[in-house]
Amino acid sequence: MIRRLVRALDQRSGSAPFIRKTLRYLFPDHWSFLLGEVALYAFVILVATGVYLTLFYTDGTTDVVYHGSYVPLQGQHMTEAYRSVVNISFSVKAGLLIRQTHHWAADVFVAAITLHMLRVFFTGAYRKPRELTYWLGLTMLLAALLEGYLGYSLADDLLSGMGLAIGNAVALSIPFVGANLGALIWGGPFPGKHEFFARMYVAHVFLLPVLIATLLAVHLLLVALRHHTQFKRGPRETERKIVGVPTFPGQTPRSLGLFFAVAGVLFLLGGLAQINPIWLWGPFHTFSSTNGAQPDWYLGWLIGALRLVPSFDLVIGGYTLVPNPFWGGAAFPLIVFTFLYLWPWLERRWSGDDAFHNLLDRPRDAPGRTAIGVGFFTWVFLVFVAGSADRIDVLFNISYTSQIWAYRVAALAAPPITAFIAYRVCRELQAGEIVERERTRAEREAVAARRGAETA
Amino acid sequence: MTRGALRTRIRMMLRRRGAIGGAKQGRRERQYWPEVLARPRTPPRVAERGPGAQRLILIRVLGAAAAAAALLVPSAGAAPPGDVARGKHLYGEYCIACHGAAGSGVTHPPSARIGAAPGRAQTQQRRLAPSLRGVGALAADFYLRTGYMPLSRIGIQPRRSRVLFSEAQIRALVAYVASLGPGPPIPRPQPQRGSLSEGLRLFTDHCAGCHQVVAEGGYVTGAVAPPLEQATPTQIAQAVRIGPYVMPTFSRQAISDRRLDSIIAYVQYAKHPDDRGGWALGHIGPVPEGLVAWLIATAALVAVCVVIGERVRRGEG
Amino acid sequence: MARARPKDVLVAALTLLAARLQPGRRRRRMRELTVPAGPPSPGAELLVLGLLAAATICAVAFIVVYALDRLPGQTQLLGLSIGLAFLCIAAAFVVAAKRLVVSEQNEDDYPAEEHPEEQETIGEVVEDSGSRLTRKRLLTLGAAAAGGSLGLALITPAVSLGPVFDTSSFYGTPWRRGRRLVDENGRPYHASEIEESALYTAFPQGADREELGSSVVLVRLPPAALDLPHANAGYAADGIVAYSKICTHAGCAISLYRTPLFPPASPGPPALVCPCHYSTFDPATAGTVLFGPAGRKLPMLPLLIDGRGDLRAAGNFDEPVGPSWWGVRLRGPNP
Fold first, then answer.
1. Residue C3 has what pLDDT?
2. A26 — contact with chain B (CB < 8 Å)?
3. Measured between beta carbons, which residues in chain C are less than 8 angstroms from residue A281?
4. Where are the alpha helices (DSSP H) in chain C?
5. Which is the most buried residue in B11, B138, C34, C250, by most CB within 10 A?
């Protein structure tokens, strides 16, 4: 029966050679190569749940009074957008499940991309000929950060509204063009309600998903054209020969299993773990705020940076050249992403290695890269953790002001230390392997010599 | 009893019964600021009224005084008020070291030689405490029942801790402190008369900035606004009227009793809010959510990857 | 000739049918296997069947839970059922991948690093195509000019998104001299109701409260504690001072007021604090920054008390409100 189907398809499209190649395309074997797939499947869940949510959400900013089933909001003024999200959570059956699954999927999506990026970085998979694939991935990460930020801001609740105010302030803080850029995006000063929400909605529901999907398609195409990289596990893997599992029948059940696992974990969380209970936060007003407001985890590095920068605006005469939020909100992510984008080129310059690479390095086999990577990501991580110093104070009574100073010092002092430690660890592991190899060889020779002496 | 003390007692009773009121009722009698200490006391309202009204008030007052006198005698069935004398004894044991004799307080900056050290006794600690005159039963009851007092170290923020006094001791101390000067009594809030939605609105406007919108606590520069899970309605009412440590003080004029009822109703709700989405994660939003996303979801999925990816063992072919 | 008995026909038919039902086995033995064979694993098959059955039950449970009305914890049950359904199918696939499908480790060539001949041909195609052109550089320049300006023209309508070149709206606030201060219900604030150690939020009477320039915090300080600079000398009214509620760092509402009950043992003087990054402002000194990342003091609104005792603005703020931008210090707010 399959043959009949394939015959019909080949006659109409001529794609049998392509399908045959695809079916026997090889996937090298390592668990860390599946992290990108986790992100892909999370994206699929995002689109599916997202489409469902668009059927119930409205981006209207007209002021309405709530008369629904949730008592603490009775009689309160809010926008239509906020009310529609409260309705999805309370009145639409399975609405809250889909909403929470969508939000968990966004958190996991960015987490998976981050892990995938770390794997690519520390194994050198970004090297020639895959720099373009790597840059597409970084761009998708950027798009995902923005997409998530816009997504949870669409609910117009108190927490996300405060986050939008901060985003507006960061835009305003860009030298020379800040206010103009802010006025362009928001249609005037903050909150710029009516037009801005419509733009946010279109960007979140259409523009960015299409961008991500397009970049994803090209990313996967490039991976397929160049074939996946591989670790050298034995004599068979070389720069010229790829060893792996074919798409069918080997890889297909694995990938499908992973997809259903991602779906299962996300839906389980969506039903069992509450996320972003906007009815508890209340609607956003520019004159309202709450303590403990935080962005979603993937923007935590920015709130940490904003809190760590000491108090100063760079002013020349009457001209405010660099308002304070620029350093933490714009310069810091700019530096991080510039480093990540430039890294393949930087490494090529420093190592002089311009060759094609299909074989991956274990982190220990590239101590320089590993050390620099560990140091760099230590810096980002410490700034990230600084963002929750106030909750640490509330929970564990460690003075917030002391923490801020400690993080300021640590963010600069710790990276060289961790980089050095990583370097030493890599070198030690390498040395250990050489010792192990020599010992095994010596043992084998001793055994062979003994056997030779016995037979003689 | 001196005439001044009698006048004060009369004024206290009249206020409680609502016979006198007006804008002056909102003014706080606490005298912590040196500038306020220097301010002259206002004349009693009774003397300003006409003779007929004064006679009526006198009759009412005598009746109230008789009732008050009766209250001082412990009677079967009624809740016994604290024993002022016993309270004074307890005060002398536990409070006088910082708060001074008769609640005078110590407000001057401490001397340089403070704290225990070799050659210096432990008792020579910093003595720094506000005056308790006029704080009333409201404040004394609050600080004692929450365990804010006694303070383990001067200068730190009072925090909720294990209450070391028994019920009778607390009542005695409260009665004694209340007797030190005219002050507000223990409030009797009625949260069931409050409105949840008005409570959320008021709480967001006045309280969420420090205590977080679901009362999970927060940070304000130099202090921690505690979570309110353990706060009883009375304690909430007391804290709102006192403004302990660095909290603002909201008098009846700023937040009326009826509005306070709504706020308390909301705080009671916030202890167990609507968590229909599942595991509440502490109601503080993205920080625990991110931890769950990484340590539960992503960790589980990485584990799945490891299970899947482990396909061919070494040696197999 | 014996007539076929019905029993024989039935047996023959069944035999033929049975043969039909297993055609592959015979056919497979006749050719070489493209995918290598592996040993069967009936235990694994049973496990997969069990998992699929469990998934079926869970999926049906989801539909049932959905159909039931007003179930307590419905979101949890829905999530549990559909999540387990997915996970059971996932487990079935993983078991199949490990036990029911042959894991090959095949070898293949990596594709060629590059294709120099094709690259050469492409280059030649492009070069040869220009055989009729004599002014290549000029044409390129013309094309670049036309293309570039066309591109610019196509993105120009984006400017309509907002007042890109006109930032005057950033200086505007609804406050004018004589504007009454009202609370969130529209009731005017009376000076005598403002007490020390309490925080009040005020808006201009009749204005849009969501505008950044609208919301204002009111506090009363003892006159001895006020230490306003010369420029803000008359801004306080009977010790009552008013500041923009919008933090100058990143625009959050300043809803925290640190007021020491006992100043000798307090972390600092009375201060207005923002909950986002804890920028701390001193209301006694015209809003100077005491702590936190804010780079600019809090804008102060001058107050006056009218004949009835109501609080009114005595003018506009001393600085533009909201987060800083390049022109925030170039001039004051619109009068």
1. 60
2. no
3. none
4. 6-21, 23-29, 42-67, 74-95, 116-129, 136-155
5. C250
Give the pLDDT of residue B316.
Answer: 38
CA distance B120 to B111: 14
A173 touches chain C (CB under 8 A): yes
Report the share of chain C in percent with pLDDT over 70. 94
Q: Where are the domains of chain A?
A: 362-456
Contacts of A183 in chain C (CB under 8 A): 162-164, 166-167, 169-170
* Nearest chain B CA: its distance from C260 CA (Å): 4
pLDDT of residue B237: 97
**Touching check for B253 and chain C: CB below 8 Å?**
yes
Instruction: Say which range, A193-207, B3-17, C293-307, has the weakest mean pLDDT.
Output: B3-17
What is the C-alpha separation between B45 and B68, in angstroms, rounded? Answer: 21
Give the span between the Cα atoms of A108 and A298, in whole angstroms: 10
Secondary structure letter of residue C310 according to DSSP? B
Q: Among A155, A184, C266, C64, which residue's Cα sits nearest to residue B244? A: C266
C181-327: CATH topology: Rieske Iron-sulfur Protein (2.102.10)
**Residue B191 to residue C301: CA distance in whole angstroms:** 37
CB B6 within 8 A of CB B16: no
pLDDT band per the 50, 70, 90 thresholds, residue C213: very high
pLDDT-derived band at C244 (thresholds 50, 70, 90) equals very high
- Tokens 């195609």 belong to C125
What is the C-alpha to C-alpha distance for residues A114 and A109, in angstroms, rounded to an integer? 9
A288 touching B (Cβ < 8 Å) = yes
Asked if residues C335 and C287 have their Cβ atoms less than 8 Å apart, the reply is no
When pLDDT is cut at 50, 70 and 90, the band that residue C30 belongs to is low
Res. B78: pLDDT tops 50: no
Using a CB-CB cut-off of 8 Å, the residues of chain C touching A268 are 79-80, 83-84, 87
What's the rounded Cα separation, in Å, for the pair A353 and A350? 8
ipTM of this predicted complex?
0.93
In the predicted structure, residue B69 carries a pLDDT above the cut 80:
no
A29 to chain C nearest CA, in Å? 9
Beta-carbon separation of B245 and C222 below 8 A = no
Give the whole-angstrom CA distance, residue B69 versus residue B79.
15
- The string of pLDDT tens digits covering residues B132-141 is 999 999 999 9
Q: Measure CB to CB from residue C251 to each of A180, A190, A307 and give the nearest one.
A: A190
Residue of A120, A361, A127 whose CA lies nearest to A232: A361
Query: Pick from A94, A168, A236: which is nearest to C66 by CB?
Result: A94
Whether C73 shows a pLDDT value over 90: the answer reads no
Rg (CA), chain C: 40
C38 touches chain B (CB under 8 A): no
Helix residue ranges per DSSP H, B146-232: 167-179, 196-206, 208-211
Residue B212, min C-alpha distance to chain A (Å): 4
Residue A267 backbone dihedrals phi, psi, to 5 degrees = -70, -35
Output DSSP code: residue A273: B
Contact yes or no for A29/A245 (Cβ under 8 A):
yes
Q: Which residues sit opposite B218 in a β-bridge? A: B225
Kindly determine whether residue B277 and residue A292, on different chains, have CB atoms separated by under 8 Å.
Answer: no
Is a pLDDT exceeding 60 seen at residue B122? Answer: no
Per-residue pLDDT averaged across A12-37, rounded? 91
pLDDT averaged over chain A?
95
Partners of B294 on chain A (C-beta within 8 Å) are: 111, 297
Structure confidence at residue B250 (pLDDT):
96
Beta-ladder partners of A243: C107
**Beta C216-220 vs B218-220: how paired, if at all?**
unpaired
Structure tokens at C187: 């009731």
pLDDT band at C124 (very low <50, low <70, confident <90, very high): very high
Average pLDDT of C100-116?
A: 89
